[in-house]
């Protein structure tokens, strides 16, 4: 294993498990903005959080910012119990889970309390300039084009961004354009921005997940062929 691709965190050392994962880590090592595109279970979020923790422990960034759009997947936030934080936190849970595998819980709590780690909905990014930070946008397929442009233009001095998403799992209203799809179309040829494409072969969850992803891809291809 290429040692340059090993991400060292407090609780574990993380290595890419597929060639595409290695390409993703290499892209994060060499680019200030990286898009990770592809199906669930391919390690996009996990590796991005590992890279962010690694950067913070090495004092290369002062802050980690983890965000995702609070788009309702068939459910209505307004009917969930609790205050705004309690309603939003379930959307951000995968980001907490990844952090807890890499840093002790008490350390995560302290860093959140002192602002070194920020986990917030995408709407909280508006109007800010994010400097000296590692910034991760998860579930980016659920951004609108306006939200995506807003987010990308938050990049400030000494900061790096990772944008992850799966265009096959968009929860936007029917007919809505995904900001991730538009960003790929507009920015694909900007050399300073890396796009890494994952496939079902990169799924590292339960073996069935890869087969499920492949079955859905094949069904989608049939539908497109019949149009």
Task: State the gist of this model.
This protein is an alpha/beta fold. The chain has helices at 19-30, 44-57, 84-102, 105-113, 145-152, 179-187, 207-225, and strands at 7-8, 13-14, 33-37, 63-68, 117-121, 133-137, 160-165, 193-197.
Properties at a glance:
alpha/beta, 227 residues, six-stranded parallel β-sheet, 40% helix, 8 strands
Strand percentage lies at 15-25%
Q: Count every helix, treating DSSP H or I runs of 4 or more residues as helices.
A: 7
Specify the structural class.
Answer: alpha/beta
Our Rg estimate from Cα atoms comes to 17 Å
**Sheet with most strands:** 6 strands, parallel
The first-to-last residue Cα distance is 45 Å
Structure description:
It is a single chain. The chain is of the alpha/beta class and 227 residues long. The protein has 7 helices and 8 strands. The protein has a 6-stranded parallel beta sheet, with helices on both faces. Strands 1-2 form a two-stranded antiparallel sheet. Helix 5 crosses helix 6 (179-187). It is globular, with a radius of gyration of 17 Å. The N and C termini lie far apart (45 Å). The model is unreliable at 73-77 (pLDDT under 50).
């Amino acid at each position: 294993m290429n040692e340059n691709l090993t991400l060292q965190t407090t609780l574990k050392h993380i290595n890419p498990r597929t060639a595409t994962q290695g390409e993703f880590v290499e892209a994060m090592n060499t680019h200030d903005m990286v898009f990770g595109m592809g199906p669930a279970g391919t390690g996009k979020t996990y590796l991005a959080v590992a890279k962010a923790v690694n950067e913070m422990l090495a004092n290369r960034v002062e802050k980690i910012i983890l965000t995702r759009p609070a788009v309702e997947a068939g459910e209505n936030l307004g009917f969930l119990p609790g205050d705004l934080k309690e309603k939003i936190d379930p959307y951000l849970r995968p980001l907490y889970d990844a952090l807890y595998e890499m840093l002790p819980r008490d350390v995560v709590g302290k860093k959140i309390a002192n602002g070194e780690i920020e986990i917030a909905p995408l709407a909280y990014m508006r109007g800010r300039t994010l400097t000296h930070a590692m910034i991760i946008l998860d579930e980016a397929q659920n951004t609108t084009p306006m939200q995506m442009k807003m987010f990308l233009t938050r990049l400030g001095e000494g900061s790096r961004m990772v944008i992850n998403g799966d265009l096959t799992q968009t929860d936007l209203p029917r007919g809505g354009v995904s900001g991730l799809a538009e960003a790929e179309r507009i920015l694909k040829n900007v050399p300073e921005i890396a796009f890494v494409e994952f496939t079902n072969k990169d799924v590292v969850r339960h073996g069935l997940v890869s087969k499920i992803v492949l079955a859905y891809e094949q069904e989608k291809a049939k539908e497109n062929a019949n149009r």
